[in-house]
Amino acid sequence: MIIRARAPLRLGLAGGGTDVSPYTDLHGGAVMNVTIDRYAYAMVEPLTGDEIVVESVDLQRRRAYPLAARLPLDGELDIAKAVYNRIIADYGQGRAQAVRISTFSEAPAGSGLGSSSAIVVALVQAFTEWLGLPLGEYDVAHLAYVIERQDIGLHGGRQDQYAAAFGGFNYMEFYANDRVIVNPLKIKQEVANELASRTMLCFTGVSRESATIIAEQSQNVRSGSTKSIEAMHALKASAQQMKEALLRGDFELLAETLREGWQQKRAMAAGISNARIEEVQAAAMGAGAYAGKVSGAGGGGFMMLLVPLERRLGLIATLEAMGCRVEGCFFTQEGATAWRVRS
């Protein structure tokens, strides 16, 4: 029996960065996001031998290890190994399991779409299905957060894990002591359809290490940087404003919130924007886009652009001539899910 799982990637619409400590612990954060039709996949296949096989299909990397209750975190396929370690320690009574663990992501590393966290969530969901663990969406998301931030030591926020676990349009609140409240929004289908018709994803051709940018952002808060903290306060308020715009179907307010949010986000840390991003943004606006922002921590990856449907082809031609990849997307409602396949 093979257990497969998938978890959706997400677009951060407003408030991104306020889900990162220490801002969350000191002031509380709020984020508005939505999952899209791009996924991270995980596969868990029990083996009869005495080894553990870990592989990333999209990265074309594979490692085999002797049967053990803990695999080394040495920079090679650490995400899958860290999930195995945590599941065996917390739910497997410390007994090693011969297993093949595989992952695949439909977005490149550094995309800004929360792909790394979605992989962790998909892996946790796969193990939950395999072992029959009593874990709901909050449990899966929190466990994924602990694995990423504590076990592997990657800097980052909390929204990605909860978006991948829950799916859909969500207004999320983050508080001290890892308290999270996910508020699923019932967005009218015509509003979601119209937003999808206006949304384009532009891969800038530059992947980035989000942990470095997030570490700078966190340090700015710890040092009491007034500029950074005030920007985060404004971003938190923009999440509430974005929620209202979506619920009311107010696209003018939605675009204004997206534009203002991007300006505030750029003030949080120096690495969030760069010459390439500014160049692409300017070209997109010149080609008909009327709002846009970098998805995720910044520094590269995907940009979310709003453009009238009738200007879409011109925008694609302009940005592809600059070496960008441009594509549309649809919004999804389903969060992480797992199923069994006979091998």
Q: How many β strands by DSSP?
A: 12
- How far apart are the first and last residues' alpha carbons, in Å? 5 Å
Mean pLDDT, to the nearest integer, reads 92
Q: Tell me the β content.
A: 25-35%
Number of helices: 11
What does this structure look like?
Strands 1, 2, 3, 4, 5, 6, 7 and 12 form an eight-stranded mixed β-sheet that branches. Strands 9-10-8-11 form a four-stranded antiparallel β-sheet. The chain is built from eleven helices and twelve strands. The radius of gyration is 20 Å and the shape is globular. It starts with a strand and ends with a strand. With 343 residues, the protein is of the alpha+beta class. Helix content is 41%, strand content 25%.
Features of the shown structure:
41% helix; single chain; eight-stranded mixed sheet; 11 helices; alpha+beta; 343 residues; four-stranded antiparallel sheet; globular
What's the layout of helices and strands?
Blueprint: E1 2-14, H1 23-27, E2 29-46, E3 51-56, E4 61-66, H2 78-91, E5 99-105, H3 115-131, H4 137-151, H5 159-166, E6 169-175, E7 179-184, H6 189-198, E8 199-203, H7 210-222, H8 226-248, H9 251-266, H10 275-286, E9 291-294, E10 302-306, H11 312-320, E11 325-328, E12 337-341
Parallel strand pairs: 3-5
Antiparallel strand pairs: 1-2, 1-12, 2-5, 2-6, 3-4, 6-7, 8-10, 8-11, 9-10
